[in-house]
Amino acid sequence: MNPYLLIVLLTSLGLGTALTLSSTHWLLAWLGLEVGTLAILPLMAQPHHPRATEAATKYFIVQATAAATLLFAAINNAWLQGHWDIQHMSHPLFTSMITLALLLKLGLAPMHTWMPEVIQGVSLNTGLIVSTWQKIAPFILLLQIKQIHPPLLTIIGLASILIGGWGGLNQTQLRKILAYSSIAHLGWMVLILQHSTALATFALLIYIFMTSATFITLKKCKATTINMLTTTWTKAPTITLVAPLMLLSLGGLPPLSGFAPKWFILQELTQQNFIPHASIAALAALLSLYYYLRLSYSITLSLSPNNLPECLQWRVNYPISTPLSSALPAALALTLFLLPLTPSALTLII
Amino acid sequence: MTPIQMTFSTMFLLGLMGLTFHRTHLLSALLCLESMMLSLFLATSLWALQLSTINIATVPMLLLAFSACEASSGLALLVATARTHGSDHMQNLNLLQC
Amino acid sequence: MSYLVCVLLFGLMVGSVGVASNPSPYFAAMGLVMVSGVGCGVLICFGGSFLPLVFFLIYLGGMMVVFAFSAALSAEPYPYGWGNRSVKMYVAAYVLGVGCAWKVLLGKWSGFWGGILDESGELLVLRGDMMGVAAMHDVGGWMLVLGGLGLLLTLFVVLELVRGVSRGGLRTV
Question: How far apart are CA B70 and CA B53, in angstroms?
């Protein structure tokens, strides 16, 4: 892609999210979402391949529908209550509708089916943008709506955690696994959203770090299926060492920073006497943990079923430094070592 | 609910249902999206006209501009899909399913 | 006046059912034309002057041309209209659904037409919506810039999406 065009598109992505974040009026929020959706379409369709075009088409239809539904609910709210404020949205029916539209944009459980397909169709770089940056704007809108019907979020959150774990079990495609992992993580955020918005934001932050690290790592290994992971040790030995830790951080195991949001969320749920929800969420996270473990197994502990010379790179000058891979150390450090710092990080957010 | 509100809600929901249940042409789906945006344009402009809040009259214009953006990107995607998949039938968009 | 508005609103819904019932794109575009024409009438009945004009011109002048071109792209040998069996079933289901919804909500209307509150009165040539749209160029300058930016971005997006030998509409022969 032409670098000038790339700059225009990336700036517009930023502009869209910034517009949505800075708006108090539903129209401006909608405009921001639209700009973000439009700007990412050429990035998605960038490889000249039917899969990429198809992913872009599906993404476009889903996002346009969700945005239109959002605006529809907003204008109905305006007809009934006479204002367009995001924060004072209070009509129950249309608040639920707007919530569902935002959840469709985010790709949560009953409306999640576009997410694995779209992520599977695009390149890893674009997948990184879709599963991190594009989540910010709808999520912040979701944070600002106050009076959401509580069972709605609980049911959708739990269903997302379950389906995010369950759907990934049978996959061999890494991007689909990551899409399901994203669904599961967003499920945790939505589950805690009504109890503590600070915790939800914190979980989103940690999720963005972890997912960025994972996508950049996969980009560096040029891996898109589980089989391709088994030659990681010839391509990047350091990554072979660190990637399992990163994946376990995604799974939420204790000394790593992915543990922090799960820990706080479970604690908050327990303190608010939602013990069944907390138990279901914790148990369903085991499903996700299974496929993270499988990935780390094939990265570290298994060899590719080739003879040894075939595993080696044909060309020695493997392009080490892409712009994204220079962000890899930072993202990895945040993914692995943030747990001791989380109390202060949390106070920053609150 | 006034009849006006009822009308544009019905229009929007009809468009949404058409979009959801359509399985043949991508172009029909885009047309349904367009009819949804059209009902939103009607809703915003009627809101502005009925409440006589003249500053709100800019809202339908912006809405129309951005729905034109949406429609044109949708049609560009339609062209691209027709080129890569051979036709614009929705059932051809099946390369990515699990 | 109320009677006219009633008929127009009915026309709006007929047009929507026509689009939503999944006929061939040619006929769906007809439905959209009908909705935009009737919608223009509704806006006029409620005292608008500029917005209905825009509505009518943009849709019939702009969008429909583009949609017609695209319909030509996805041409099919035997287009099916509203007489086709599956489309007929859709139409019946939608009409039934809409009828039921209106029947249920018929008694619960609060306030009838709302009326026209335009303070300029009916005899002035300058209407409220005209001033409102003009206000976009004055107080709403940044929104105007934003709209322009969105359209420019769309130009780039569309050009990039259909550029190149493998994705454009035209093929080199």
Answer: 27
pLDDT in tens, A76-135: 998 888 888 888 888 888 999 999 999 999 999 889 999 999 999 999 999 999 999 999
The helix or strand, by DSSP H or E, that contains position A117, with its residue range, turns out to be helix A114-121
A72 interaction partners in chain B (CB closer than 8 Å) = 9, 12, 36, 39-40, 43
Cα gap B92→C32, rounded to integer Å = 26
Q: Do C156 and A5 touch (CB under 8 A)?
A: yes
**Does A97 lie in the same domain as A168?**
no
CB-CB under 8 Å, C167 with A53 = yes
The token pair that represents B23 in the structure block? 């399985």
Task: Check CB contact under 8 Å for C153 and A8.
Answer: yes
B63 in C contact zone (CB under 8 Å): no
What is the domain range of residue A334?
A: 149-350
Reported ipTM: the value is: 0.95
Residues belonging to chain A: 350
For chain B, the domain total comes to: 1
The two structure tokens encoding residue A198: 């600070």
Q: Which domain holds residue B65?
A: 26-92
How does A36-51 read in b/e, with b if 16+ C-beta sit within 10 Å? bbbbbbbbbbbeebbb
pTM: 0.92
Q: Distance between terminal CA atoms of chain C?
A: 59
Considering the domain architecture, whether residues A134 and A274 belong to the same structural domain is answered as no
Give residue for tokens 């939602």: A274
